[in-house]
Amino acid sequence: MFFKNQRIGKYEIQDTIGSGGFGSVYLAKDIWIGKRVAIKVPHKQGENVEKLLQEPRMLAELNHPNIVSVITAEQINDVFFIVMEYVDGISLEQYLRQHKRLALDLALHWFERIIDAIAYAHGKNVLHRDIRPANILISSDNQVKLADLGTSRFLVSQHFASTRIGSPPYMAPEHFQGKATFQSDIYSFGVLMYECLTGRLPYFDRDPVRLAKIAREGAMVPPHRWNPEVPLELSQLICKAMHRMMGSRFADARALQAALRKVTLHTMKFSETAPQTAPPATGSQHLSQLVEEQVEPVKLSRRFKEVTSRELSDLFCWNCSRPVQRRSNHCPHCNVDLR
């Protein structure tokens, strides 16, 4: 809709950031104050302005250091757009494509900030519905920001959001049924933590129907089995966040945040007191035995297939999450660079 060097009011378009199912996002410069911003142009331009304003009004309620902020909304020459904070950096999805997985200390640091942002949004009755690595931005100064709340909605009068909007690999079983709740965001965050620490998804299938069935079965390998650096208590926390039954997950995001904080403190304390030399083999054997005693045996679904973050990016666009041909250089849907 916009092109490079085009002037829209006081904004000069500098580049295209990406395009998804709900709109296109551009990098622009506010020429009055010399500040770079992100401009989101919804695809549905013919709707009533009051309806178009629902998203920016909702997002304007959110004021958190780890949530991309909304600056204003404007309509110029019959084009409605939202002006948002520009985060100079890359997405967590892009980071995982380069590094496969996160180091434990960095992961815990980012996880705490992401869950605080999610809990804050939930406190404002805002359900995200699309928590995944592509929607976590990492700034040049190593800060994380929860982005793309265009799929979000208020949960006030209803107990759930009656749509299936979201990215299937990160959707909770009830989300596939069109009944997303705040605990569905907790589930998605659990999948995100799993992928960040193991470099792979807990389960995957290209067919959303089969994927929904696998999610309902809840069969997965605990993350510490893929990555021995993941503490048992963190592995159990992730499994609880991803439990197929909502009643067995954390009651809310603040409860998960408190549990994650305890894991972080315990991990830091253990790191400070751990010997500098490698532990004897007997210690490793004891830990392995302890893990086997505390984690229930997992029976894999016959449809279970290991999928790494690299393989996932070969199957779906990191920007719009729609299917792409393996090894494609550009997404045919949003034309974003996949390399």
Automatic annotation (TrEMBL):
InterPro entries: Atg1-like, Kinase-like_dom_sf, Prot_kinase_dom, Protein_kinase_ATP_BS, Tyr_kinase_AS, Tyr_kinase_cat_dom
Domain of life: Bacteria
Domain Protein kinase: 11-269
A GO cellular-component term linked to this record: cytoplasm
Molecular functions (GO terms): ATP binding; protein serine/threonine kinase activity; protein tyrosine kinase activity
Pfam families from the UniProt entry: Pkinase (PF00069)
PROSITE patterns, per database record: PROTEIN_KINASE_ATP, PROTEIN_KINASE_DOM, PROTEIN_KINASE_TYR
Listed name of the protein: Protein kinase
Alphabetical UniProt keywords: ATP-binding, Kinase, Nucleotide-binding, Transferase
Signal peptide: none
Annotated residues for binding of ATP: K40
Lineage of origin: Bacteria, Pseudomonadati, Acidobacteriota, Holophagae, Acanthopleuribacterales
